[in-house]
């Protein structure tokens, strides 16, 4: 359109000259037609066909946030993907189905990775990958069982209870998984500065260990057998672990200044951290407690085997026993919003900054929801 306007503006002196010549009875196409025309009267409007484009005419249409538009849901830029927009919030949508017992989930820039945790003698586990918007599901590896997982730029680390090993495999599945520790059941995983921390249950102890990038294993803490150690999390200075027998322990990342009774917390399963607080799930509830030993604050009930993740403002929690996924204010558990309900055992949960992903174990589904 702008090129047409430029051509019109170039022809304008010629056209106006013709009009003036006709008005004065000039003959032929003499100097009156090729010279500059007399200036138009001040304030005179140009014909519509010759008028320049208005400022911003070709600019993008301004965003209009809407309580129902899935491409601008509640705020500009919030795209619900395959979900709907209701009351300015995106709804979750299924990106995978028919997976056997999907348990925990992790994401990178392009893909979703899922473990399949089967109970002993109930089948075999595996590690799956699929595009973040859904699509073909690839089986990256088969295990007797796969439990937790971590993903970095090139590798995937997978824990296994029934194989009693910790595995590492390349993301491109160019070779199969390799065991880097095989001293007992391996459970929850955490990572900081290229070091992987994991909890284990072996015949001699229940412990916390670390594996470096070159696959050297360090023993950080041993608990008594049957302590049922499970959750683990790490920050810049400390590693935290939880036993379902009723305690959260803590030590510096080199294993020093260890205390096995840093906080009383019955039946803990999963742990996560932010700069100020520790968050955990138990068989009954989800909690937050400040790292400076403030009293725990309950965030949600009926958690069961559920998972908790946090961002700058909210905690997202899968409520296994309630069959739902909720979002709450992470400081005090207020502002409760049910994100999904009528689920059959929601378990794993991951956050990529713009969306959350969660598993629905008993229906074999993976869900995604724009935050």
Descriptive notes:
- The structure is a single chain.
- This protein has 371 residues and is mainly β.
- It folds into 3 domains: 2-50, no CATH class; 61-91, no CATH class; 96-370, TolB, C-terminal domain (Neuraminidase, 6 Propeller).
- 7% of the residues lie in helices and 44% in strands.
- The chain has helices spanning 2-24, 31-34, and strands at 85-86, 89-90, 93-96, 102-107, 111-116, 125-131, 138-143, 149-151, 155-160, 165-170, 178-181, 185-192, 195-201, 206-211, 217-223, 229-234, 238-243, 247-252, 259-264, 268-273, 277-282, 285-290, 297-301, 308-310, 314-319, 324-329, 337-340, 346-351, 355-360, 365-370.
- The strands form 8 sheets. The chain has a 4-stranded antiparallel sheet, with no helix packed on it. The protein has a 4-stranded antiparallel sheet with strand order 4-5-6-7, with no helix packed on it.
- Residues 1-59 have low confidence and may be disordered.
Number of helices: 2
% residues in beta strands: 35-45%
What is the multimeric organization of the chains shown? single chain
Number of strands: 30
By CATH reckoning, the class of the largest domain would read Mainly Beta
Question: What's the layout of helices and strands?
Answer:
Layout: H1 2-24, H2 31-34, E1 85-86, E2 89-90, E3 93-96, E4 102-107, E5 111-116, E6 125-131, E7 138-143, E8 149-151, E9 155-160, E10 165-170, E11 178-181, E12 185-192, E13 195-201, E14 206-211, E15 217-223, E16 229-234, E17 238-243, E18 247-252, E19 259-264, E20 268-273, E21 277-282, E22 285-290, E23 297-301, E24 308-310, E25 314-319, E26 324-329, E27 337-340, E28 346-351, E29 355-360, E30 365-370
Antiparallel strand pairs: 1-2, 3-30, 4-5, 5-6, 6-7, 8-9, 9-10, 10-11, 12-13, 13-14, 14-15, 16-17, 17-18, 18-19, 20-21, 21-22, 22-23, 24-25, 25-26, 26-27, 28-29, 29-30
